[in-house]
């Protein structure tokens, strides 16, 4: 096949130089058109399902009516934003979002690091791989499955309460308790993604220079001193990068997770910005106000990430991307 | 077989681990593994238990004494769950195939530095990491395209994932230039190079990205909830209404006359939704760590 083609067509390298001689643009087009057409459908996808909807955020400044569309609806300036800021439900959603996200920052962010250190310290490779297989598994489960599994263990008719009932201990209300909902959410996130989160840390731990450990040990540094003075500084760039990425997501907490459980604990305990946008907009038809809330959330998230990255650069760290 | 608890060789400066330290670590890791695996085992056990055993045990059975496949026979005999399983399998297979095709195309199309338009397309993809269009504008877009209540709405809006594309593109770019030049010298076109040189070298990364796409199609429920009516619901939506929101399945929904215990059926649905992933993923484990790291570090 290849030989036939080479007999029929001149080598491409040669064609390219001819093209460049006869005019740079035309030559470039002839050289790159296959690649260009290959990339085109994908590029179209991003325009259609990402950038045009991004422009669709003009709804936030409109008195949007679905039958009139973007072009027919009238502009109302910042009216939607003022209405949003006057809505108690919006502020409740902001409060819940911050509560859950801070809890996750303190409890969930360090968990994979701890597990990674534990795994890294394991000496037997075969056993280590087995444990890794197990702890990565929940990452591949959907939120529906994660919530269903929590329910089968902790739910009112779950196996834990079955055990308590059989032993005449009063049963626990875990799944339907609004007061502890943020803790429940955090533990679900930890169950699902703690293992998966170790991948980055494990790779960073392997990359720490082994000679530093030896030098520290020769200087009389024990296990814990080596952890503090060698390991943690060694993985600092990864820690900072993950932290910055987390900041960009700080206002997006568990949309699907809450959607599935909102019924059990009530909107008051579980409404976050994302679910506020969904219920207020798609379900109740307040398009303008909820798009405004979504837009505001997006801007704050992007700004936080850029600011954190900038700060990291100031402090002499690499951050997520380079300048 | 080697003793798995035997100590591997250690550098001379490292302290010999104490028995207490090793025991503590071992116990901690065992507890973690049990916490992860317990719900899976409980679901499988209960789905296989007979009605009498479930009643006697109080609703849950970890290891059934006389396993029966009754619950699975009911599920697969037609009706709501079978229909949903067909939808999920169809969306996953077709969606993954289309996603992989589009991913390979755009990744290869932007993989040669300085080629026409590639810089802009890459910037466009990177932009998706910084912003998100939001639920409502996306919904309105799908509506304007006339895709509401079609199976296309479960695939096209999530066809590409910028992260996956970047991982694949990075891998393509790392194919040594000498190979490509040699192929060009032999007169290979760009398409031939893709088929004969690049794709055969990229099996590992394609396997990982394929797994990521397949898992996300298999697990998706929000798009189904947003875009389609109940007759097109995938398995995850059925799980949601019958297990999480505890709707009872009745004989009519399942298309049969006699029902095994509800608990066993529910857990059987759960097992059906989990099993394919659990079966496939251990084989790809050695690849996906690499996939995650390529994307995270170079992206």
TrEMBL record, chain A:
It is found in: Cell membrane. It comes from the Bacteria. Residues 1-25 are annotated as: Disordered. Residues 94-308 form the ABC transmembrane type-1 domain. It holds the Pfam family BPD_transp_1. It is a multi-pass membrane protein. InterPro entries: MetI-like, MetI-like_sf, UgpAE/MalFG_permease. GO terms for cellular component: plasma membrane. The chain crosses the membrane at residues 34-52, 98-120, 140-164. GO terms for biological process: transmembrane transport. Keywords: Cell membrane, Membrane, Transmembrane, Transmembrane helix, Transport. Belongs to the binding-protein-dependent transport system permease family. This is Putative aldouronate transport system permease protein. The lineage of its organism: Bacteria, Bacillati, Actinomycetota, Actinomycetes, Streptosporangiales.
UniProtKB/TrEMBL annotation, chain B:
SUPFAM superfamilies: MetI-like. Its main location: membrane. GO terms for biological process: transmembrane transport. Residues 85-282 form the ABC transmembrane type-1 domain. The keyword Membrane applies. One of its GO terms (cellular component) is plasma membrane. This is ABC-type glycerol-3-phosphate transport system permease component. It comes from Nonomuraea endophytica.
């Amino acid at each position: 096949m290849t030989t036939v083609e080479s007999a029929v067509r001149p080598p491409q390298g040669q064609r390219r130089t001819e093209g460049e001689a006869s005019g740079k643009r035309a030559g470039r087009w002839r050289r790159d058109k296959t690649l260009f057409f290959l990339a085109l459908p994908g590029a179209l996808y991003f325009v259609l399902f990402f950038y045009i909807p991004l422009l669709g955020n003009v709804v936030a400044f409109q008195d949007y009516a679905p039958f009139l569309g973007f072009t027919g609806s009238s502009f109302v300036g910042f009216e939607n934003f003022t209405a949003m800021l006057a809505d108690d439900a919006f502020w409740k959603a902001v409060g819940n979002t911050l509560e859950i996200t801070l809890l996750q920052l303190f409890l969930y962010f360090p968990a994979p690091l701890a597990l990674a250190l534990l795994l890294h310290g394991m000496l037997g490779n075969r056993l280590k791989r087995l444990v890794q297989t197990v702890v990565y598994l929940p990452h591949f489960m959907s939120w529906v499955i994660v919530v269903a599994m929590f329910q089968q263990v902790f739910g009112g008719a779950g196996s834990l309460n079955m055990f308590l009932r059989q032993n005449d201990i009063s049963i626990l209300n875990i799944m339907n308790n609004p007061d502890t909902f943020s803790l429940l959410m955090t533990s679900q996130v930890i169950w699902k993604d703690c293992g998966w989160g170790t991948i980055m840390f494990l790779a960073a731990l392997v990359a720490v220079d082994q000679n530093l450990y030896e030098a520290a040990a020769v200087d009389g540094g024990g296990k814990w001193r080596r952890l503090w003075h060698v390991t943690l500084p060694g993985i600092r760039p990864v820690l900072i990068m993950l932290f910055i990425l987390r900041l960009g997501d700080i206002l997006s907490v568990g949309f699907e997770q809450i959607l599935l459980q909102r019924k059990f604990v009530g909107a008051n305990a579980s409404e976050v910005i994302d679910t506020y946008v969904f219920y207020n907009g798609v379900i109740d038809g307040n398009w303008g106000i909820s798009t405004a809330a979504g837009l505001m959330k997006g801007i704050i998230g992007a700004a936080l990430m850029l600011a954190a990255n900038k700060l990291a650069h100031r402090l002499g760290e690499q951050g997520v991307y380079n300048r | 077989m080697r003793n798995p608890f035997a100590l591997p060789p250690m550098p001379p400066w490292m302290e010999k681990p104490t028995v207490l330290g090793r025991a503590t670590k071992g116990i901690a890791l065992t507890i973690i593994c049990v916490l992860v695996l317990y719900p899976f085992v409980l679901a499988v056990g209960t789905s296989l238990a007979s009605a009498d055993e479930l009643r006697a045990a109080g609703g849950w059975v970890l290891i059934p004494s006389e396993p029966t496949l009754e619950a699975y026979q009911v599920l697969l005999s037609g009706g709501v769950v079978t229909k949903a399983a067909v939808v999920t399998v169809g969306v996953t297979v077709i969606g993954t195939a289309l996603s992989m095709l589009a991913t390979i195309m755009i990744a290869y199309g932007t993989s040669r530095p300085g080629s026409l338009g590639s810089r802009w397309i890459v910037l466009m993809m990177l932009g998706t990491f910084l912003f998100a269009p939001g639920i409502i504008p996306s919904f309105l877009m799908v509506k304007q395209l006339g895709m509401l209540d079609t199976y296309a709405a479960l695939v096209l809006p999530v066809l590409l994932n910028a992260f996956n594309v970047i991982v694949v593109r990075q891998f393509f770019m790392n194919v040594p230039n000498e190979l490509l030049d040699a192929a060009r010298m032999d007169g290979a076109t760009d398409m031939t190079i893709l088929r004969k040189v690049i794709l055969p070298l990229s099996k590992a990364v394609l396997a990982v990205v394929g797994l990521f796409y397949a898992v996300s199609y298999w697990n998706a429920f929000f798009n189904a909830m947003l875009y389609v009516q109940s007759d097109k619901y995938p398995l995850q939506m059925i799980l949601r209404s019958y297990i999480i929101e505890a709707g009872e399945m009745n004989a009519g929904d399942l298309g049969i006359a006699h029902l095994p215990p509800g608990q066993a059926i529910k857990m059987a649905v759960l097992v059906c939704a989990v099993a394919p992933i659990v079966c496939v993923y251990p084989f790809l484990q050695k690849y996906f760590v690499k996939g995650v790291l390529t994307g995270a570090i170079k992206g």
